[in-house]
Amino acid sequence: MMIADGIEDEEKWLAEGIAGIQHNAFYLHRAVDSNNLREALKYSAQLLSELRTSRLSPHKYYELYMRAFDELRRLEMFFKDEERHGCSVLDLYELVQHAGNVLPRLYLLCTVGSVYIKSKEAPAKDVLKDLVEMCRSVQHPIRGLFLRSYLAQISRDKLPDIGSEYEGDGDTVMDAVDFVLQNFTEMNKLWVRMQHQGPIRVKEKLDKERSELRDLVGKNLHVLSQIEGVDLEIYKDTVLPRVLEQVVNCKDELAQHYLMDCIIQVFPDEYHLQTLETLLGAFPQLQPAVDIKTVLSQLMDRLSNYAASSAEVLPEFLQVEAFAKLSNAIGKVIEAQVEMPVVGAISLYVSLLTFALRVHSDRLDYVDQVLGACVKKLSGSPKLEDNKATKQVVALLTAPLEKYNDIDTALTLSNYPHVMDHLDAGTNKIMAMVLIQSIMKYNTCVSTAEKVDVLFELIKGLIKDIDGTLADELDEEDFKEEQNSVARLVHMLYNDDPEEMLQIICTVRKHIMAGGPKRLPFTVPPLVFSALKLVRRLQGLDGEVAGEEVPATPRKIFQLLNQIIEALSNVPSPELALRLYLQCAEAANDCDLEPVAYEFFTQAFVLYEEEVADSKAQVTSIHLIIGTLQRMNAFGVENRDTLTHKATGYSAKLLKKPDQCRAVYACSHLFWVDDQDGIKDGERVLLCLKRSLRIANAAQQMANVTRGTGGPVTLFVEILNKYLYFFEKGNPQVTSAAIQDLIELIKTEMQSDTATPDPASDAFFACTLRYIEFQKQKGGAMGEKYDSVRI
């Protein structure tokens, strides 16, 4: 309630201040329009008196200040026109100093000072020095900050810089630098003092308000960086030492962090490189609470980008020994800040390593030196428990992989394994993911069984349970992502030599079979498809070759595949195993290995019978079986009849009538295959279609009994389309009369009193009839066939 009251009071005070400004602005405008200088000064002073309030927060005070600022712009235009007010600029400069209150007096003085400098009746440096000194009389933090911000605003284009119209005799650049530095110093002092403007209990609120005003102070550094005359020498001898002196001496963590960041952002990278020792020397002197790691990281990032911008600047880095200085500075900072958490120290080493990799990519000793420093820092605790620190260590280990695009490089760094020794089991998994992602990102092909064995040892945290952590205890999404990564990795293992490729497959199988029931459904399929890829490369080769090494033949690979999929079916994951058996059957068919293909089909049917219990899964499985069997051409008559009979039998035993109907009419394709002259059994096709029609009728009657209305005629229209397909393919058993009868049946069903209106079925039937009509109109042999069909 007290906070709400405070906000309401502040809104009221702001409204009163704005009303005061508007009231006096009205009379000010009238005085300006009538060229009445005395009245204009009177009302402008009264208007500016509204800025003397100390009851507003910085945010609200800014609103008030902007209202006054707009009026001061108008007043400055009036002051410029001497003909209107009839007073010389020097007299005007004296006159405004008679304003009663110090704050309005100084705002007016700054405004007239701007005009005075433009008139060039006095050197710009003298006027600016006068103004910056007089502004010291306002020591209230908020009022003083905004006053000096106004001074900086009106003077930024009037500094006596090289090439400026206000450049005077002598070393005027130093005068400009002194003015900006003095204004910056005073503004920073006021800004730091703001933290003492309220009780300790509202410190968080005060810090937030102070943070909102930081740009007012930082703009001075931006102005300094824009002064043309500030060359490297002036920056090195004057600007940087004085700015750093103020930063260190203010002993305020918020100010130190922001101003160090400003220095790094606004001044050129070339200056940073040449003054690196001076800049880095300030870091250990900062307050312990300052987030040095972020600022130092930004400095190293900027220097890295500078080095990357041109090869010509690289000798400068070597000349100033940038890496050694940065490494030394980081060591001193970590030593000085005893309380710095491990994550902070490691993040500094990550930035230093990034710098070394980008600037001195040929110096592996630098990379190893950084890793060694990290090992030294981590030596106090054997295993990391801080999650953030762990991520930083992973980033540290990842950087060389990304830079050199080669896992082998990590092995040449003596400290690389020592850093990994500090990772716990969970982080090992993260690192394993990083290794896989590195391989995927750079499309690295792992080409020998030996390398594959080493790689899978490195990523063992992903492919089996270690340290007693069970797969069931892991987050489901994370687990899936990990296993999908392993699955993608399997596809990156390749060798042109079939013998070596078979060895790779056997090596992968050895590792993933220890993965447990939750992992196998993810890792077995890519291994199966990798083996099938090898089978297709060896298509047509078979037989046994004497010798110690087992030759890579399709038959041998199929035996291996049978064992792998059998392990998956025992998990149990029957639907997936069934799909893989069918894929293997198709590959065996292409290799013309009828017994092998028959065995895979047998395994698929056994799984269907014994393991697939869900009705939806049964529907999907039977359609997969029918579709695969339809493409087989290696089977003899006996084997094909056996499998076809099984498929049609299971189709008719599905739970739901519509599913039965669709599966049975799908079986019709098993008896009529276009590219195989031997399989064109018109009678059995018609038998399947008639059987599906009976099932559709039964489904319709069942709907009548249970719901009192007939179901949609979709099934009948689907069967009609099958009739048309086989009619066009030349099946003599499918006649135009049968099609005509079916069309009449559908029309009767649609007009029945118990029919359920279904726009989708109606549209489907209408499209089918339009197709028949189109074929009739097209003419030719097909048109003649359709002539006898009446719609």
Automatic annotation (TrEMBL):
Name recorded for this polypeptide: Vacuolar protein sorting-associated protein 35
Keyword check for Protein transport: yes
Chief place of localization: membrane
Topology in membrane: Peripheral membrane protein
GO biological process: intracellular protein transport; retrograde transport, endosome to Golgi
Secretion signal, residue range per the UniProt entry: none
Protein role: Plays a role in vesicular protein sorting.
Superkingdom to which the source organism belongs: Eukaryota
Keywords: Membrane, Protein transport, Transport
Taxonomic placement: Eukaryota, Viridiplantae, Streptophyta, Embryophyta, Tracheophyta
